[in-house]
Amino acid sequence: MTPIRLGVNVDHVATVRQARRGTEPDPVELALVCEQAGADSIVAHLREDRRHIQDHDVARLAKRLKTHLNLEMGLSADIVSVALRIHPKQVTLVPEKREELTTEGGLDVAGQFEKVRLAVKKFQARGIEVSLFIDPAPGQVAASHRSGATIVEFHTGSYANGKKRSKELRHLVAASQAARRDGLIVAAGHGLTVPNVRPIAAIPEIEELNIGYSIVSRALSIGMGKAVREMKDAMNAARKS
Questions:
Q1: Catalytic residue among 35, 72, 96, 168
Q2: Predicted confidence band of residue 43 (pLDDT cuts 50, 70, 90)
Q3: Most exposed residue of 74, 92, 124, 186, measured as fewest CB within 10 angstroms of its CB?
Q4: 191: alpha, beta or left, given left = phi > 0 and alpha = psi -120 to 50?
Q5: Known catalytic residue: 56?
Q6: pTM for the full model?
């Protein structure tokens, strides 16, 4: 079984900083610590309301990372223009509602297909890889494939937070298999923790997990480097078993 990659989301480092509108903690410096601890990429979500990550964070991340930046973003013209200017290696298109605490579900690619397809084409024309953050549903996988995107990231929130975990896991397995048959690179994330990550990391089609909140929370107790290594160890243990 191939190794699995870990992308660490540093949004909530910025959440703590923005509570006082100060300069610390710096999500860029903590991103570099994550890389040193084994993170394979860094994820940051530039939201329309700029509630945590700021434009200058994205610019500095793009310049200073030794791995690469995966920029999560909605499809507003403002955010698209920032992404095209900063030129990250990858963007992940996500749904966004200003009133939500966190991303509550996957992007409805099937329901807004033409808008998504045009965005994918625009980014790819600039040499930027595009991932679509979707629910593990057959229709969304098929629409993502037709859009021209090369990567899908499955929303694991229903698995992580729901009561019917075994059912949600079956959906994730089936969707991962379908995406791989379509030639898509498969990633997953949202709500994953060290206790619940192993069944997801064990799905052979999934090549990458993107995890942030639980790592940042754990880092308050044991430090960022140890929190990243702890998560990678749990993921790799699932691969070996």
A1: 72
A2: very high
A3: 124
A4: left
A5: no
A6: 0.94
Q: Measuring CA to CA, which residue among 240, 215, 225, 234 is closest to residue 12?
A: 215
Angle at the Cα of 155 from the Cα atoms of 185 and 214, rounded to 5 degrees: 105
Token pair 């973003």 is at which residue?
73
CB 155 within 8 A of CB 140: no
Residues 6+ apart with CB under 8 A from 75: 93, 115, 116, 119
Catalytic residue from among 96, 155, 190, 208: 190
Active site residue 72: yes
Catalytic annotation present for 190: yes
What does the pLDDT look like over 64-82, one tens digit per residue?
A: 999 999 999 999 999 999 9
Measured CA to CA, the distance from residue 149 to residue 162 in angstroms comes to 29
Q: What is the rounded average pLDDT of the residues 109-129? A: 97
- The CATH code of the domain at 5-240 is 3.20.20.70
d(CA 60, CA 26): 11
The pLDDT tens digits of the residues spanning 151-174 come to 999 999 999 997 889 999 999 999
Half-sphere exposure of 113 toward its Cβ, with a 13 Å CA cutoff? Answer: 12
Instruction: Tell me which of 12, 45, 145, 155 is the catalytic residue.
Output: 45
